[in-house]
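In the design runs reported in the main text, the only information available to the sequence generator was the tokenized backbone. The following block is the verbatim input for one such run; it is reproduced so that readers can re-run the procedure and compare outputs position by position.
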């Protein structure tokens, strides 16, 4: 329940180049990749009831090693029931050829025996991923495969790059894989506590007919999401809305 409350609304929300992508052998010079460093706070609501706050931060080094972190905590009535915290991060390397996942960590602490721990380690050279934590496993992977948190960066930067249809594969903590598909659905003006923004509207396609996921990305904020909404037929609806920009998105050139 806690993981769904804190993370379910931001299933997929932030680099256009594929994970595990290799060079094509061409000698032509590639431009130095850019990525928006930022820190922002989101308010999560379940059926319009305030339930949690989520702080997301992206930082990179000059050599292209990046860390995207997410820290969530329950608030309001949900805090009285669960008193939950989630700490999550993904580390990856970004260069002109693509994004290469390194490792992923997820730790949940909450009342009622709701603790959970997952670690994933990616090896681009061998094309393998292995898990430590509550479930331990290892597997071969091919093509564009990444962890759940990194997929959220992947989408936003694909939109920023002008893509209108996106598809990639996510490996979950238990080793299961899911193909995510999205398409741009237009433009819309969105009001948030952090301000009003012109946005690009993106919808998930090809998933469950009983669940819709819609996201609004703001070009003014280097395409980080300002609203993520997940609606279920005859079930709970979740919405994450930008509440505060702690560090305004600023493009960082990797290796440039």
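Verbatim output:
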């Amino acid at each position: 329940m806690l993981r769904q409350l804190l993370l379910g609304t931001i299933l997929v929300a932030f680099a256009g180049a594929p994970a595990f992508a290799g060079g094509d052998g061409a000698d032509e010079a590639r431009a130095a990749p850019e990525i928006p460093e930022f820190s922002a706070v989101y308010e999560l609501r379940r059926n319009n009831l305030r339930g949690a706050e989520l702080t997301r931060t992206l930082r990179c080094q000059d050599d292209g090693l990046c860390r995207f972190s997410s820290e969530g905590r329950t608030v309001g009535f949900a805090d009285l029931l669960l008193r939950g915290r989630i700490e999550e991060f993904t580390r990856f390397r970004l260069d002109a050829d693509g994004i290469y996942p390194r490792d992923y960590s997820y730790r949940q602490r909450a009342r009622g025996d709701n603790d959970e721990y997952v670690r994933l380690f990616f090896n681009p050279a061998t094309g393998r991923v292995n898990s430590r934590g509550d479930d331990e496993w290892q597997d071969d992977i091919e093509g564009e495969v990444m962890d759940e948190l990194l997929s959220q960066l992947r989408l936003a930067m694909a939109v920023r790059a002008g893509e209108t249809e996106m598809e990639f594969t996510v490996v979950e903590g238990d080793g299961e894989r899911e193909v995510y598909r999205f398409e741009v659905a237009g433009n819309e003006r969105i009001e948030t506590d952090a301000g009003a923004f012109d946005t690009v509207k993106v919808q998930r396609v090809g998933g469950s007919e009983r669940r819709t996921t819609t996201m609004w990305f703001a070009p003014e904020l280097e395409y980080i999401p300002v609203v993520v909404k997940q609606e279920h037929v005859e079930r709970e609806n979740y919405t994450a809305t930008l509440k505060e920009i702690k560090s305004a998105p600023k493009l960082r050139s990797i290796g440039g």
